[in-house]
Amino acid sequence: MTKRFGELSKEMCSSISGFPLPILEDLSEAVLDFTSLADLQAWLVAR
């Protein structure tokens, strides 16, 4: 994530690291379609 979007906030990192494996797998696929940090933020809010 950092390579694609730069430094993430602590809140984002905490949120992502707390996800169970199936959600992380979904995120790993979804991130391929993200074009901005806003896409990641929207995805996180939806979860």
Could you outline the blueprint of secondary structure elements for this entry?
Elements: H1 2-5, H2 10-17, H3 21-30, H4 37-46
How is this structure best described in words?
- It comes from Nostoc flagelliforme CCNUN1.
- This is Putative transposase YdaD.
- Residues 2-44 form the DUF4351 domain.
- It holds the Pfam family DUF4351.
- Helix content is 68%, strand content 0%.
- It is globular and about 25 Å long.
- The protein has helices spanning 2-5, 10-17, 21-30, 37-46.
- It has 47 residues and is mostly helical.
- The chain is built from four helices and no strands.
- The model has no long low-confidence stretch (mean pLDDT 93).
- The protein has one domain (2-46).
Structural class: mainly alpha
Strand element count: 0
What's the mean pLDDT score?
93
Q: Count structural domains.
A: 1
| Main β sheet profile | none
- Looking at the structure, what is the overall shape? globular
Radius of gyration: 10 Å
Distance between the termini: 17 Å
How would you spell out the order of helices and strands?
HHHH
Organism: Nostoc flagelliforme CCNUN1
InterPro entries: DUF4351 (IPR025587)
Protein name: Putative transposase YdaD
